[in-house]
Design a protein that fits this description.
By secondary structure, the chain is an alpha/beta fold. The chain has six helices and 13 strands.
Length: 205
């Protein structure tokens, strides 16, 4: 069973629909016991960093999420869910993130002649041998919607990068802890293959 964390903000239904499509059992939950007992955990996210962290704290879920991310079971943060795993964001100065991974979330620079938010399809370049991304071929296109991007302190955890005016970290991987700035559930067959691989790692498919 995959637990999709419901903290009052997130792209929950489309993630669950994608898991249903691949035949992977899942539950949308905010119950610590369900999250703890799940084989794998997904932290979705949409919207602003500060408001998402406020919702996490309002629901008393920060420790539960941090424990799940550090548990060693497969855990993935998607879009803002990935950003929340880091220490801070320029989007919400003074608001600490979950701090599971070291690094910051930065605003795309102006003056690049690019539309912000970054919205649409961009190719990703896998940077290293990746357990989550190992079944991707070439430089597949993924679907992005974001105005801020992750800059990890440790380049060794960066599993994929994307160029949009600047080159930024599109995916991270540290043991069984994963993050994707793009939305695999909205990224066609290649995105579905990532979710299938996550389900395999969690023993759920």
């Amino acid at each position: 069973m995959i637990a999709i964390i419901d903290y009052g903000a997130g792209n929950l239904q489309s993630v669950q629909n994608a898991l249903n499509f691949i035949g992977c059992p899942s539950t949308v939950t905010s119950a610590p016991a369900e999250i703890k007992s799940a084989n794998g955990v997904i932290l979705p996210g949409v919207g602003a960093f500060g408001s998402a962290m406020a919702e996490i704290h309002r629901h008393g879920m920060a420790d539960t999420i941090i424990d799940a991310a550090k548990s060693g079971k497969p855990f993935i943060g998607v879009c803002a869910g990935m950003q929340l795993l880091f220490e801070e964001s320029e989007e919400s100065p003074g608001v600490p993130g979950l701090g599971v991974l070291n690094g910051k979330v930065l605003l795309f620079p102006s003056g690049q002649g690019l539309k912000i938010p970054h919205m649409g399809w961009n190719s990703i370049a896998v940077q290293k041998k990746s357990r989550l991304l190992e079944k991707l071929s070439g430089q597949p296109y993924m679907y992005f919607v974001h105005s801020y991007y992750v800059k990890a302190d440790n380049e060794e955890i960066v599993s994929a990068r994307t160029n949009y005016g600047i080159t930024f970290d599109a995916a991270v991987e540290q043991g069984n802890l994963f993050g994707c700035q793009f939305h695999p559930e909205k990224s066609g067959t290649e995105g579905i293959s990532i979710l299938k691989r996550f389900a395999e790692l969690a023993g759920g498919n």
